[in-house]
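Exercise 7.
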Amino acid sequence: MPTAPRPQNTDELYQALQENDQRPYGRTRTVTAEELVDAAEQFAEPVPLIHALLELQEAYTYGSEPRKSPVVFARLLTLFDEQPDVFDERLRHMLFWRFKWVAHALRQLPEIPLASLRQWLTEMRDRYEKAGLGLQPYYGAAYQLAAHVGEDTTLAYELWAGRTRTRLSDCEACEICQRARHHLRAGDDERALRTWEPVLAGKESCQEEPARSFSYALLPLLRTGRADRARELHLAGYRGCRRNPSMSGEVGRHLEFCALTGNEARGLELLAENRNLFDEVDSPLDQLDFLTGVDVLLQRVELLGHGELPAAGYAGRTWTVAGLRAEVRSRADDLAARFDARNGTTAHTDRRKARLDRAPLLDELELTLRTRSLDDVAPAAPVAAPTGRTAATVPDSLPELILQARALEEQGHPDAQARWARLRTLVAARDYAHPDDPAVGPLVRLRADLLADEGGRAGEKDEFADAVALHEEAAALYDDAGLPGDAALARACALLAAAENSAEGADGTEAKAAALTAAHASMVRLHEETPGLAPYQEARLLRLRATTLGLRLQATRSEEHVAPVFAEVDLLHTFATRHDVVGQVSGALLLRASTYAISGDLPAAVTEIDALLDRLKAHGPAWHLPRTLGLRGRLQLGLRDAQAAYADLTEGLRRAADWPADAVDTTRLHGDLAEACMHLGRPEEALRHLTRSAEVALRRGSRFDAFCTYSNAAQLSLDLDRVEDCIALLDSLLAEPDVAAGEVDDRLVAQLRLTRARALRAGEDLKAATAEFVALAAESAGWDDDPGSHAMIAAETAVLLGESGEFGRAREAADQALAAHARAPRYEQLSNCLRELARLQAQQQGPDGLADARAFLDDAGRIADEARAAGYEAHGRSLDTALAYEHGRVNAYAGAYEDALAALEKALALLGEPGPEDDRAGEWAECVRLAGVVEGVYLERPAPALTRVDAAVSRLTALGHTEETEPLISLAARLRDEE
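Solution. The predicted structure, written as C-alpha cells, is:
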C-alpha cells in the first residue's frame, strides 16, 4: 500500500521529495523513496528521476541497507554516461561524491569479492581523473579498504593524509575521525585524542559526527585517566546514535563502555532500548560491530553471575543473558570468519577477540543520575540486609522462628520483618508442615500473623484498600484462633487504613476529618469492648487512637483538634510508662513533638525531640533514632537553620544504615537532606540526595513517589546546566515498562516529557525538542481540568516553531495558548511568548514579516491590558515596558525606524529614570542603547543620539551602575566616529 498519494506532476514530485527528506532514516523514509522513484519514471524526464534516485540511495545508505545502494548508483551512473548534460554542477558533484558511498557499501558485504572492491576503486580513480578531479577522495577510500582488510596501512595513510583536500573530500569531522582511528590502531591513545579534539570539542560536525567519534574515543579517554570526559561523551554520544540502524556499531561501543565501567545494568537497559537493531541492520559489517559490543556486555553480566537475567534480543522469543550471549556469539563469530575469508586475513576475528578479552577499565563509574546495579535488575530479595549492624541470625528451628517473630513484633523491632518473610516462604511451600507445639499455636494463628504483617506493609506504601482487606482477613482468623486481643488490633488497623483510604478520595478537609473522627470513635469502642488485652496490645491500640487524631489535625490544622491529640498522647505515655512498653513510650513522645510541630509551635517541638533523643540514646529503642533525627532535621528546616538540619539528617542516615532498609524510611531522609543542601547552596549534593531518595522509593514499591522525586531531580539537573544528565535520566524513566504501557499517571509522565523537551532545547537539539513539544501540546489540549498547563505548553511550542521559521504553525500554537489562557490566565508566560514570536518573525523575515509580527504584539498588548485590569504584577519585567521595548525592536528589524524610535521613547517613559538601588537600571540602559542605535545609526542622526547616550552614561555612573554603562560607552564612541 502506498505511503502517500502518487505525485501527478513534477512539482508534486519535488514537494514529496522535500517532505521525505525531513523524515528520519528508516523503513518509512526508504519505502517512500522507492515509491517516488516509481512515480518519477512516469514523467519521462531525466532530471526528476535523478533527484528521486539520489534520495533513494541516501535512504538506503543511512538506513543501513548497503546491498541496495550500489544498484541505485549504477542507474545514476548510466544516466550520467548517456546524458551528461542534464547533470548540472550540483547533481554532478553529488554523483561523484557518492562513489565513496558505493565503496563503503561494498566493504560491508562479505559476499563481494575483494577483487571487486579493488576494481571499484580503480573505476573511481579513472572517473575522477577523466573529470579532472583531485584524487584525495580516492586515496581516502583506498586507505579505508586497507584498514578494513588488515593490511599494512602506512603507505595508504600517507598517500591519503598527505594530500590536499578537495571539494569531494569527506568532511573535516569524518576525516579527523579516520586519522584519529589510525593512531588508535597504532596504540597511541594520546595522539588519537589530540587529533580528535576539534570534533570532541564540537568545532567540527556533520550528520554522523560527533556521535561516531564519541563512541570510538570512550575507551582511550578511560585509558588516559579522563573518566569524567568519557562520561560526558557517553551521555551525549549515545543520544546521537540510539535506535539508529546506520549507527548500530556506535551503539555497540556504548554497550561495551558500560560493560567495562561497572555499568552492566545500564548496558542491559540500553540494549533493551535498541532491540530493533537486531532485526533492522542489513549491513553485515555493522551487524558484526554491534553484536561484538553486545557480546562484551553479555559476557560481563554472565561472568558476574547473572546469566539468568532477562535480556532484550532477537524478536520472536524471550531471552536470558546466557541464551542471548550464545546466539550473539555464534552469529558474530560467523560474520568475522566470512569477512576474513573474503579479505584473506584474520583481522576481524583478531579485533573481535581483542574486544572480548579486554578487562574492565574501571570498577565503577557513575554514568547517570540513576545509578543501578545488576541486583536492581534481578528480582529483589524480600528484605534488604542491614549494612552497619549484625542482625540476629534467623533461626532454623520452625517453632523458634515463629516465636521469635512474634516476640520481635511485640517490640516493634525491625528484625521481625526478616522472620515474617522467611515464614511466608515456608508456609507457601506445598510440603509445609505446621509444628504441633502449644507454644506456637495453630496454623490459623500463623496465617493471621502473616496477613497482619502484609497489611502493615501495604499501609506503609499508601495501598490503603489492600491494607483494609488484609487486616480484616487477619482479624477473622484471629477470631478463629481464639485471640480477641490480636483480632482487636487487626480491626483497629483496618479502621485506620479505611479512614485514610476514604480521606484520600474525599473532597475537602471536612470529609477527611469526618472519616478520621469516625475511625477514632470506632477504635475507642473496640478498645472498651475488648477485655483481657495484654499491655503491648493495649499500648498499640492507644497508639493507633492517637495516630488517628494526629492525622485529623494534620488534615485540618484546626486549633480545636490539637487538645484531643495531646489527651490521647498523654494516655498512651502514662500507660506505656507504667507497663514499661519502651517502644510505645518513645512513640508517645514522638507523637507529642509532631503535634507541637503541626500546631505551629516549633520551639516546643524541638524541646520535646531533644528530650526524646536523650531518652533513646540512654534507654532505646535504637531503631527509633533515625526517624527521630529525621523529624528534628525537618523542624530545624522549619526554623530556617539549614546547617543544624543537615547535621541531624546526616546523622539520621548514618543511624538508618544499622537497620534493614524496609525498617527506616530513608526516602524521606534523603529528600529532606536535598532541601537542606539547597538552602546551604550545595545543589550538586542536593541532586545526589534526590536521586537516592527516588531509588529507595522505587525499591520500596512506591513508584509514583519515586517518579515524582526523579522529576524534581531532572529539573534540578537542568537548572544546573547538566543537560545530558537530565536527558539520560528521563530517557531511562520513560523507557520503564509501566511508563511505556501507560500504567503510570499520565500527567506525571507528561511532566517528565516536558522537562525532557526543555532539556533537548537547552542541548540545542531543536528538531527533537520541537517534535516533543508539538506532541505534548496536542495531548494537553484535552486537559479540560487544567487549561493553564496547556496554555504554558502551547506557548513554549509556538516559540520553538518560530525559532524553526514555521510561523504558520507557530501562529496556530499561539492561538491555542490564547484560548487556554482565556480559561486559566497565564499573563506573563503568554506575553513572553507573543513578544518573542514577534521578534523572531521580524528578525527572520524583515519587512515581509512586520504585519504578522505586529499582530503578535497586538495580542501581547491585550494580555497586558487584561493583567493590569486583574491587578496582576509580573515577576520579571513589567509587561507594558517589555511590550513597548519589543515594539521598538520589531520595527527596527523590519526597517520601520521612526516607529521603532517612538516605541522606545514610550518604553523609556514607562520605565522612568533609574535610582541608585533600582534593579531596572539594566533594562533602562538597554532601551537607551537601542534608541541610540536606531536614531544615530539607522536614521543617521548621530548628534541627538550621542546626546541621549552621553546623558545616560553620566546618570548611570553617578548612581554607581558602572557595569550598565559599558555598551553605552562603546556606542558613544561609534557615534562620535560617524559625526
